[in-house]
Design goal:
The protein is mainly alpha-helical. The protein has a single domain, classed as lambda repressor-like DNA-binding domains (434 Repressor (Amino-terminal Domain)). Strands 1-2 form a two-stranded antiparallel sheet. Helix 1 runs parallel beside helix 6 and helix 2 packs across helix 3. The longest helix has 24 residues.
Length: 123
């Protein structure tokens, strides 16, 4: 069984999208999350957060933690941030969608991404 690691670049991308969408500073984001600003800087520099900080961050992002937990081999071959987290962050930032609409669209997107991943693995 392979280990699981945090996709730090994906986490940083999701944080970046939320900070931009909320039009807040990184310092304000850190305060809202309940972590230090230096922790967010370390994440942006590709350093893994501890478990407590990771939990606080994904709760603030309103994303499932497993979205950022990946197989190390997958992470090594990935060139771009995970598509789902990028799109989910954009959906959450939309003021013209209510929470139910956002969740519905996220579930459709996740189903599509799961299908593509399964299709690629079987080929």
């Amino acid at each position: 069984m392979s280990d699981t690691v945090i996709d730090v670049s994906g986490l940083a991308s999701a944080l970046e999208a939320r900070v931009k969408a909320d039009e807040i500073s990184w310092r304000n984001a850190a305060g809202s999350i309940g972590v230090s600003p230096s922790l967010l800087t370390r994440i942006r520099n590709d350093q893994r957060p501890d478990l407590d900080a990771f939990a606080k961050i994904v709760r603030w992002l309103r994303l499932p933690a497993d979205q950022f937990l990946v197989d190390p081999e997958e992470l090594a071959t990935r060139e771009e941030p995970e598509l789902g987290s990028s799109i989910n962050a954009l959906l959450r930032a939309r003021s013209d969608l209510d929470e139910q609409d956002k969740q519905y669209l996220e579930s459709i997107l996740q189903s599509g991404l799961d299908h593509f991943r399964q299709t690629r693995k079987s080929n």
